[in-house]
Amino acid sequence: MILLDGKKTSIEIKEEIKKTVSAIKLKGERVPHLAAVLVGNDGASLTYVGNKVRSCEYVGFKSTLIKLENNISEIDLLKQIQILNSDNTLDGYIVQLPLPKHIDEQKVLLAIDSKKDVDGFHPENFGRMSLELDAFVPATPYGIIKLLERYKIPTDGKHCLVVGRSNIVGRPISILMSQKRISGNATVTLAHSRTKNLKKLTKQADIIIMALGIPEFLTSDMVKDDVCVIDVGITRVVDKNNPKGYVIKGDVDFKEVSKKAGYITPVPGGIGPMTIAMLLQNTLQARQWNLS
Amino acid sequence: MILLDGKKTSIEIKEEIKKTVSAIKLKGERVPHLAAVLVGNDGASLTYVGNKVRSCEYVGFKSTLIKLENNISEIDLLKQIQILNSDNTLDGYIVQLPLPKHIDEQKVLLAIDSKKDVDGFHPENFGRMSLELDAFVPATPYGIIKLLERYKIPTDGKHCLVVGRSNIVGRPISILMSQKRISGNATVTLAHSRTKNLKKLTKQADIIIMALGIPEFLTSDMVKDDVCVIDVGITRVVDKNNPKGYVIKGDVDFKEVSKKAGYITPVPGGIGPMTIAMLLQNTLQARQWNLS
Question: Do A149 and A222 fall into the same domain?
Fold first, then answer.
């Protein structure tokens, strides 16, 4: 069994980005600049945004954190979006989700200039990605593709099962894996909550990408020998023995499945850190596209 | 075996559109207006565009055919696109493909205003469709969905195999079939030229959508009893006994597969006529969205 070490790989990618940023600085040019909009004080969101800002600093990007009150009106948030869209010193920005319930999340995401949409959530980016044009690929599926690529996992002609059809993970990774690309050309099945006989599908798959959000759902009796398992699940499960009061669980019963798998990602330390690295990669890409 | 009669169903849909157009006329409002851009004199393209124009007239749309010389420059074609984009009396238009080799097809398609892109080929429409927002759905996959819907074919939890990953048929129908929608919620596998053991997949599938372009590829030994088969293939095969010099063949060996299938579309008379009906439906939709 080979552990697909997302932490290690993400550090390698960040080091590469850092080098590129140093070269940009040496030429006396403006370094990439990422902004993050955070509305309210949700604990998990604060952690995620904090990690993103720290990673920006690490690679030498300029970063701006825009903290807004939980009771900001939708109109005022949209005004903020317009300010960011017209800021020429900014290459990309993200709006941390979820937003408070009184704000229409979709409306906000659609207001983001697709050229600054480094999260890749805007329909224009989603469409461009699907049609194999230059696009910002959402960071999580992008991270999966990159991890498979770095470990040289064969995907061409393999049967890949994606479990979960969310717009930010399951759907886009199912598209990417079946495209003519590195870490692509797989025969892809997309399964979801309405799927029957899931175990029959998981047992056939050469590659399984779990993006369901149900802790330890995939058990060892559900997979074949030497399967490659990518675990996108990150669920906080209450654990009184842990100082934090919770532990992070993936969608895979790692302890047992790892005994049968050929390749497997751990949680944490798998796709999570890759996601942040790919957000940085998208921001660097935005900087380069803006130059040209 | 139930024949999925696309011709009959397309006529029903056209009659419904015709009624809606009559009501628009009665209110003294402008009827939907579709334009088609045809570059050069390709035989098949002339036939397709001719059918589209006749269908427009049938349902009471205004239609405009813009015929351009084969040697038109890319710049002049793009100018024509800009004129169409800014024409407020026009609800939608299509550019008949293929374009002559000296013109960048992608560049032309990207220049079409996504609000007038009734073919649904623009990335913004593709992305909006994928993310389940209001969008123009490409006419062929839209026709498949509608045909399944009209015949009340159960799709929820069924295993649907799509063969072919083109941007205008295979890819979008694979997305649509797995979404939470009528004629959706299927577990979808997308197979293509790199797929191994295709027969194993076709034998498992409850619904098979063939969009490969290889005449009579799917044979009866490849399918299980009571399968639902949708044949998108339209290939002209030389036939000296036919007055036209060719016959139209689908991707399915209809004669044999129809003996085992529960449902099957014929070629011609299946998805082909549905495609034109859905182009009209998209144009009517464009008219309605433009009003609001």
Answer: yes
Q: Are residues A105 and A188 in the same domain?
A: no
Given a contact cutoff of 8 angstroms between Cβ atoms, the answer to whether A176 and A184 are in contact is yes
pLDDT exceeds cutoff 60 at A25: yes
- Which phi and psi (to 5°) does residue A143 adopt? -65, -40
Structural domain boundaries, residue A160 = 139-272
Which chain B residues are within 8 Å of A164, Cβ to Cβ? none
Q: Is A126 an 8 Å CB contact of chain B?
A: yes
First to last CA, chain A: 44
Query: What's chain B's average pLDDT?
Result: 97
What is the ipTM metric for this complex?
Answer: 0.96
**What are the tens digits of pLDDT across the range A94-132?**
999 999 999 999 999 999 999 999 999 999 999 999 999
B9 touches chain A (CB under 8 A): no
**Whether B107 and B143 share a structural domain:** no
Domain count, chain A: 2
Which CATH number is A144's domain given? 3.40.50.720
B227 to chain A, closest Cα gap in Å? 17
Beta carbons within 8 Å of B38's beta carbon, 6+ residues apart? B45, B46, B49, B65, B66, B67, B68, B96
CB contact under 8 A, B201 and A187: yes
Domain identity same for B107 and B160? no
Q: Does B285 touch chain A (CB under 8 A)?
A: no
When the pLDDT of each residue in chain A is averaged and rounded to a whole number, the result is 97
A1 domain residue, yes or no: no
What pLDDT does residue B44 have? 85
Please determine, for residue B292, whether its predicted confidence score (pLDDT) is greater than 60: no
Candidates B6, B9, B19; CA nearest to B58 is B19
Does residue B18 form part of some domain?
no
